[in-house]
Amino acid sequence: MANGKFISYLRVSTEGQRESGLGLEAQREAVARHLKGGELTLVAEYVETESGKRSDRPELAKALAEAKKQKATLIVAKLDRLSRSVAFLSRLMESGVDFVAADNPHANKLMVHMLAAFAEHERDQISGRTKAALAAAKARGVALGNRTNLHDAQRKGANTNLKAAASHAVGIAPEMARLRGEGQSLAMIANTLNARGISTRYGALWTAVQVSRVLKRTGE
What is the pLDDT of residue 167? Predict the structure, then answer.
C-alpha cells in the first residue's frame, strides 16, 4: 500500500438497509477513523447486499478488481464475520490484493492465510462429525428427514404439526441465511447445524433438501 490508496468494502444484510444507510454509516466512520491522520486516500467504495440465497459476492469481485487496478489496499470495517467466510478469504488470497481491517489493523496476509486454513479445517471437522453422526443414526434405525414413518397419532395432528414446523423454520431460518451469506452451500449448512446438535422439527438430522425448503418457506 505504498501509494496510500484504499478501496472500502462494506456490507449490509438487506436492500432496505442499503437504501436507508442503517449500518453503513458506522462502517464508513470506522474506515474514516483508520484513514485519518495520514496521506491516505479512499478512491472507491463498494457495498455488498448480502443474501442467504447468494454467495457469489459480486461487489467483492468488483472491489478486488479495482484495488488490483489502482494498486490499492482493500479495507473493511470489521473482520469478525468475514474471518469465518471461506468464500471471502479464498477470493482475497487469490487476488493478491493487500488488505486491512479497521478494527484489526494487524490482520495482514499471514493472518488471512491462517484464518482461511482454520476455516477450512473447521469445515472438514464438521463434515467428518456429521458423517459419523449420520452413520450412527442409520445404525439406530433413525429415518433421516423421512416423514413417511410418522405414527397414526402424528398424522391425525397434521395441521398442528405443520404450524409447529413453520414456527421452527422461522426460528432457524435466520441462522441458515447467515451461513448462506458466508458462502456455505446447502449441504454445508446442514452439516454445520447437525454438528452443533441442532435437529429438525422431528429430531432428525438436517439434509441439504430440508435446508432449501426452510429458506424457501421463510423467504430468506
Answer: 57
Please identify which residue in the block is written with the cell numbers 456455505. 184
Which residue is it, cell 484489526?
Answer: 104
- Total length of the chain: 220
Active site residue 13: yes
State how far the alpha carbon of 219 is from the alpha carbons of 34, 156, 170, 173, 215, in Å.
37, 28, 10, 9, 6
Domain end marker among 81, 107, 133? 107
Q: Which helix (H) or strand (E) holds 42?
A: strand 41-49
CATH code: domain of residue 23: 3.40.50.1390
User: Residue 8 and residue 77: Cα distance in Å, rounded?
Assistant: 8
Which residues form the domain of 51?
5-107
Catalytic entry in 13, 55, 83, 85: 13
Statement to judge: residues 162 and 195 lie in one domain:
yes
Q: What is the pLDDT of residues 10-58, one digit of tens each?
A: 988 765 555 555 478 889 999 999 898 667 899 999 998 875 445 578 8
Q: Does 128 lie in the same domain as 103?
A: no
